[in-house]
Design brief:
Elements: E1 5-6, E2 20-24, H1 28-39, E3 43-48, H2 54-60, E4 64-67, H3 68-74, E5 77-80, H4 87-95, E6 104-107, H5 111-114, E7 125-131, H6 135-143, E8 150-156, H7 162-172, H8 175-178, E9 180-182, H9 185-200, H10 202-217, H11 222-231, H12 233-250, H13 254-262, H14 264-267, H15 270-285, H16 287-297, H17 301-311, H18 314-325
Parallel strand pairs: 2-3, 2-5, 3-4, 5-6, 6-7, 8-9
Antiparallel strand pairs: 1-9, 7-8
Helix pairs in contact: 1-6, 9-10, 9-15, 10-11
């Protein structure tokens, strides 16, 4: 059965009227949510650490910026726009002791609640509003009169109004313009992690690097390999984003389609899918989350080592050199 899609007509911004919405953090998502809500007529305050450089940025944007504890005490709805790795410590030190019954905690991802790095009091509503786009896109689409699709989920609902709050927030940031689907914290956390690891980030970047290495090892210029395996990827992804896989195929050459249909499945085959299933199992059992939590608690030494190794890959050096030559990229 198809999921119900909630649109503007299904959400009421009046649910947030007379309430104060606190956005804790002013990074990509926090910035977009705060400004979109403000422009939708919602009263917004931004909670930041004392020495945060974002205080000046938030105030320049016309928003009130206060300490995190002050924001928590003064708010009715509290959005934790904080990194997963930092959220538990900030919650314990600056949020938990200032909460009161009747407030709503709002998250943009399911990780903290599903993997219990944060366990809120039972007297609070706990909801999720997860735009399916990066913060700059959430803001850009809103300003242009559109929106990005989103997800909502309800974890705790003592007020019996949690869903109305989530839908109102989704409308305030523009998601109901495009469509919102109800899910659960578990489903969002597991599918989000899987998508990042197997396809969107891990899968794509590994495929690009291996394609680059294959061409270079065969004697082709690294610049040519970069253009073929990385640079042109955007054009294909844009077509898929706008028209789906079928729409992309309708706009490429017959030769490209033939290669897509006959060679693609030999590269990304059942063996790859089995590895995807193993990755999904690690996510569903909590193994991945526990490894990441341990890595973070241990100072992220392996994480930083892997990042440094990836940054030193030849494709990065070639890319930096070629992008610097693309004069149109520097035009505004």
């Amino acid at each position: 059965m198809p999921a119900r899609i909630y649109l503007d007509r299904d959400a009421d911004l009046k649910v947030l009227q007379g309430k104060i919405c606190a956005v804790l953090g002013f990074g990509a998502q926090g910035h977009a949510h705060a400004l979109n809500l403000r422009d939708s007529g919602v009263e917004v305050i931004v909670g930041l650490r004392a020495k945060s450089r974002s205080r000046a940025i938030a105030r320049k944007a016309g928003l009130e910026a206060v300490s995190i504890p002050e924001a928590v005490r003064g708010a009715d709805v509290i959005f934790l726009a904080l990194p997963d790795t930092e959220m538990p410590a900030i919650y314990q030190s600056a949020i938990a002791g200032h909460l009161r019954p009747g407030q709503t905690l709002l998250f943009a991802h399911g990780f903290a609640i599903f993997y219990r790095t944060i366990v809120p009091p039972k007297e609070l509503d706990v909801v999720m509003v997860a735009p399916k786009g990066l913060g700059p896109m959430v803001r850009r689409e809103f300003v242009n009169g559109r929106g990005v699709p989103g997800l909502i989920a309800i974890h705790q609902n003592p007020s019996r109004r949690a869903k109305k709050t989530a839908l109102a927030w989704a409308k305030g940031i523009g998601c109901t313009r495009a469509g919102v689907i109800e899910t659960t914290f578990r489903e969002e956390a597991e599918t989000d992690l899987f998508g990042e690891q197997a396809v969107l980030c891990g899968g794509v970047s590994a495929l690009v690097r291996l394609g680059f290495e294959t061409l270079v090892r065969a004697g082709y210029p690294p610049e040519l390999a970069y253009f073929e395996c990385l640079y042109e990827l955007k054009f294909i992804v844009d077509l898929m984003h706008e028209e789906g896989i079928g729409g992309m195929r309708a706009r490429i050459s017959s030769t490209a389609k033939w290669g897509d249909l006959t060679v693609g499945p030999k590269i990304i085959d059942r063996a790859v899918q089995k590895k995807m299933e193993i990755a999904l199992k690690d996510i569903r059992t909590g193994e991945f989350a526990q490894r990441w939590i341990r890595e973070t608690a241990g100072g992220q030494k392996r994480y930083r080592k892997l990042l440094a190794a990836a940054e030193s890959h030849p494709i990065e050096e070639v890319g930096r050199r070629l992008r610097a030559l693309l004069s149109w990229k520097h035009q505004k």
